[in-house]
Design a protein that fits this description.
Arc Repressor Mutant, subunit A, five-stranded mixed β-sheet, alpha/beta, D-Maltodextrin-Binding Protein, domain 2
């Protein structure tokens, strides 16, 4: 039985001096009101009310409970109002994990736009390539890049992501462009690594033999980093081949400072995704942010 319901019933009986009058206000029966007060007395092990055929009155224990329970119920009611407001109006803190490469680009600008629209929302960001555990680390939303996989998490697709394999013209002139993905085993490859991972100088790059069918090629290199922006700078300096989301190096390709290879072998169906833990009972702030990102990114 709900302890708060017992206390509310007791307080109503105490204020009105009558089980019948309290029952009318509470929308229940006199018998239920009496049962609730008896249950509360059982919980505390003391008598709270003196009962007679005409009225009821407080015992010393009942007077103490009446006094002490008032701030408790005030706090509960105030909290309930705040929670209802939070569920209806975007407000409160949103903890987010976002892949590092999105830190200084369009995505962060979109978050700034969202913040202007919803000034009561506190965005708390971690830009990282580490795969966070949303439940254990109390993260409301993760922005990831990859393929959709089966999991207990909820995924909302935001935008398809194209990848590019590229190096500087000077690098290709010296080493030659690959004809097949397997040729990449003989190239100096700029290795992407997860944070806190074992950095061996080796990795696997995925290529596509047909739509949806991928295979891995072992590659090696003498540079590794957790952030694609560092890979870009090394590639521009002629220090190897990079494999990055096209968005990061598109301007370099347009300007001719990087040249792509194996365009027809790169995987498709890669997405920028919003990942969260449940469909129900999400805050208004999270719902508003998901709708905002989906609307902006799918139409841009």
């Amino acid at each position: 039985m709900d302890s708060l319901a017992l206390i509310r019933t007791f307080r109503e009986v105490a204020h009105r001096g009558s089980f019948s009058d309290a029952a009318k206000v509470l929308g229940t029966s006199k018998a239920n009101a009496s049962k609730y007060v008896s249950a509360l007395e059982e919980v505390f092990g003391v008598r709270l009310l003196h009962r007679s055929t005409r009225n009821v009155s407080l015992t010393d224990a009942g007077a103490l409970l009446l006094e002490r329970s008032e701030p408790l119920l005030d706090m509960v009611n105030s909290t309930r109002e705040d929670l209802l407001s939070m569920a209806a109006q975007p407000s409160g803190r949103l903890r987010m994990s976002v892949v590092s490469s999105l830190g200084d680009g369009e995505f962060t600008a979109l978050l700034a736009e969202f913040a202007k629209l919803h000034p009561k929302v506190h965005l708390s960001m971690e830009y990282t390539n580490r795969r966070v555990d949303l439940v254990d680390e109390a993260v409301d939303l993760a922005i990831r890049v990859g393929r959709l996989t089966d999991s207990d998490l909820i995924v909302r697709k935001l935008r398809p992501i194209s990848f590019a394999l590229a190096a500087s013209p000077a690098y290709w002139k010296m080493h030659g462009k690959p004809n097949t993905p397997h040729d990449m085993a003989n190239h100096q490859c700029l290795i992407y690594t997860q944070e806190n991972s074992n950095r061996s100088g080796h990795s696997q790059w995925l290529f596509e033999s047909s739509p949806g069918q991928t295979y891995a090629v072992n590659v090696r290199g003498n540079f590794d980093a957790t952030d694609g922006r560092a890979h870009r700078l090394f590639a521009l300096a002629g220090q190897g081949v990079t494999y990055l989301p096209l968005q990061i190096i598109e301007d370099d390709i347009d300007q001719g400072t990087l040249e792509t290879a194996l365009d027809d072998h790169l995987p498709s169906d890669i997405w920028l995704m919003a990942v969260y833990t449940q469909r129900r009972h999400n805050s208004a702030a999270l719902r508003a942010l998901l709708d905002f990102l989906q609307a902006r990114l799918q139409t841009s």
